[in-house]
Specification:
heterodimer; A: about 130 residues; mainly alpha; 3 helical TM bundles of succinate and fumarate reductases; two-stranded antiparallel ribbon; 4 helices; flat; B: about 250 residues; alpha+beta; Ubiquitin-like (UB roll); Fumarate Reductase Iron-sulfur Protein, Chain B, domain 2; 2 domains; five-stranded mixed beta sheet; 9 helices; about 35% helix; elongated
């Protein structure tokens, strides 16, 4: 259309608002999730290859760069989980007795399920 | 001497300027003035050539949406005192073509609104003999999404729309969902055919800023995610029960 000024979107648009930066960080966390999946697949392969291979895998996990990678991945996955649970009420419409269940209750139920699953995994791994 | 506050206002004359530029105006600072009052002061007292849209001054018409210090706002509901001592930067809604000064071209938005069939569709196509009766519970299902005033703040907050102008956008999809949830309507499958396309609901990456800037608490981001859930459920039903899922 003639006579119109068409503004260009800056490459750095995501730095101008905290909400946009948080969104980009949330999307970036998928890289950390992928790294975690690769390590888990590696772990399964080592487990399948016998005790010696698994011992070597465990030794590798103790190297500083893998410890650092796991730490960063953990923080990113935590960030992903928290931001996702906070967004969940927008997508989940639950009605009880004709009334919509409040968003805080939906988010709280997600957090409760997360805590229960984590507690079960911790019990399973740490039991005598 | 009266206290003043500085407005930095976008000026653009398509016949003279290659690109927009900011112009400063000092206006009286009054606690009960909103940004629109300050723009009206500029127009009436300082520079009659300034162009911008406004109408009702009470957050109903949706025509005075602008970027205020980088945030999409209704200027009739944004007080100068929030930004004191200033300056306050007033720019046109971002991501839209600019016609002049603070006036954006809304042609694309209006075309997208029409595209989602935002009216009650009846399969038989006949006019009703009387009213379609509706209970308060049935009204409650879609009421939130019906509060949209088409102010386009959600489009100015949506980077997906900025990067991909083909994206149908928050308000239009929320309006489609408003009719989908209306028990009098039978046009959901027609709208789904339109909005299940790539530039429809699946273009949304759930940034969520559209909901934050909405002055009417419509929650377009929620409408889009709920639409996605419905579409995915319907697709699974069609896959598993191809002989009669609908």
């Amino acid at each position: 259309m003639s006579g119109r000024y068409h503004p260009r979107v800056s490459t750095w648009w995501w730095l101008h608002r905290w909400g946009h930066l948080r969104f980009i960080l949330r999307e970036l966390t998928s890289v950390a999730v992928a790294a975690w999946v690769v390590i888990t697949l590696w772990q399964l392969c080592a487990l399948d290859s016998g005790p010696a291979a698994y011992a070597e895998f465990q030794a590798r996990l103790r190297t500083p760069w893998l410890l650092a990678l796991n730490l960063v991945s953990f923080v990113f996955v935590l960030f992903h989980a928290v931001t996702w649970f906070n967004l969940a009420p927008a997508a989940m419409v639950v009605r009880v007795g004709g009334k919509r269940v409040p968003a805080a209750l939906i988010a709280a139920s997600n957090y409760a399920a997360w805590a229960a699953a984590s507690a079960f995994v911790a019990w399973f791994l740490l039991r005598g | 001497m009266a206290e003043t506050i500085t407005l930095e206002v976008t000026r653009y004359d398509p016949e003279r300027d290659a690109r927009p530029a900011l112009q400063n105006y000092d206006v009286p600072f009054r606690k009960d003035w909103v940004v629109l009052d300050a723009l009206n002061y500029v127009k009436d007292r300082l520079d009659g050539s300034l162009s911008y849209r406004w109408s009702c001054r009470m957050g109903i018409c949706g025509s005075c949406g602008m970027m205020v210090n980088g945030e999409p706002k209704l200027t009739c509901a944004t007080f100068l005192s929030v930004y004191a001592p200033g300056p306050i930067r007033v720019e046109p809604l971002q991501y839209f073509p600019l016609i002049r000064d603070l006036v954006i071209d809304m042609t694309d938005f209006l075309a997208k609104l029409r595209k989602v069939v935002p009216w009650i569709v009846r399969e038989d196509g006949r006019e009703p003999e009387g009213e379609y009766l509706q209970t308060p519970e049935q009204l409650d299902l879609y009421k939130q999404f019906s509060m949209c005033i088409n102010c386009m703040l959600c489009y100015a907050a949506c980077p997906v729309y900025g990067l991909d102008p083909l994206f149908t956008g928050p308000a239009a999809i929320a309006l489609a969902q408003r009719y989908n949830l209306d028990n009098r309507d039978q046009g959901a499958s027609e709208r789904m055919d339109i909005l299940a396309q790539h530039d429809g609901i699946w273009g949304c990456t759930f940034v969520g800023e559209c909901t934050k800037v909405c002055p009417k608490h419509v929650d377009p981001a929620g409408a889009i995610q709920q639409y996605k859930v419905n579409t995915a459920v319907q697709a699974f039903k069609n896959l598993l029960l191809p002989w009669g899922a609908k």
